[in-house]
Amino acid sequence: MAARHRAVHLDFGTGDGAFALRRARSEPSTLVIGVDASAEGLREPSRRAAGKPARGGLANALFGVLPLERAPGELVGLIDSLSVLLPWGSLLRAVALPEADGLARLRGLCKPGASLQVVFGYGPGDPLAVQALPGLRAEGRAAALVQAYAGAGFTVTARTTSREEVGELPTTWAKKLAYSNSEREFVTLTGVAS
Questions:
Q1: What is the dihedral of CA 170, 75, 89, 174, to 10 degrees?
Q2: Environment class of 116 (CB within 10 Å of its CB; exposed 0-12, middle 13-18, buried 19+)
Q3: What confidence score (pLDDT) does residue 131 get?
Q4: pLDDT value at position 123?
Q5: Could you give the CA distance from residue 99 to residue 68 in angstroms, rounded to a whole number?
Q6: Which residues make Cβ contacts (< 8 Å) with residue 111, sequence separation at least 6?
Q7: Which of 80, 144, 64, 74 lies closest to 117, judged by CA?
Q8: According to a count of CB atoms within 10 Å of the terminal CB, is the N or C end of the chain lower?
Q9: Prediction pTM value
Q10: pLDDT (average), residues 34-38
Q11: How far apart are CA 66 and CA 57, in angstroms?
Q12: Which helix (H) or strand (E) holds 111?
């Protein structure tokens, strides 16, 4: 199926699939795949994508279950662009600590030169396991992230991101986080797979 499309985009940790569906709709020549560790949230976007085009169906959108611990799986080396937007749980730990194994698994999905966009955030109101992650505004934090991603085969830049910018991300979770009363800091990493 990938051969029938100009490019393949993977939204890793897609949640309810809103971002993947929007991207598929706006880029009909791109195969957009949304994967998540939980099948529950994928039922509705899968149903919508499989519908008739006249009813909003998208032949270029696919959804599947793929926890980070099983990646890259059958998607090894297939991806032209990768997004990880506002992850949670093990995916958040992998991109925020960051964990070398998790980043290597994400890199294994990508073709050389694939673009990467990662946006994550957390704060004091989050569960204790999340609060234990390193502070996002700490001295040298951006440089440490850039170096760790380089070790996994990504060339990235890192910057702090405002709530307003997060609110502009076309995901359901972004709206909830951006407009919640919880204090959170956010980081965006963009770059390419080497």
A1: 0
A2: buried
A3: 72
A4: 83
A5: 11
A6: 77, 78, 79, 80, 193
A7: 80
A8: N
A9: 0.94
A10: 97
A11: 23
A12: strand 110-122
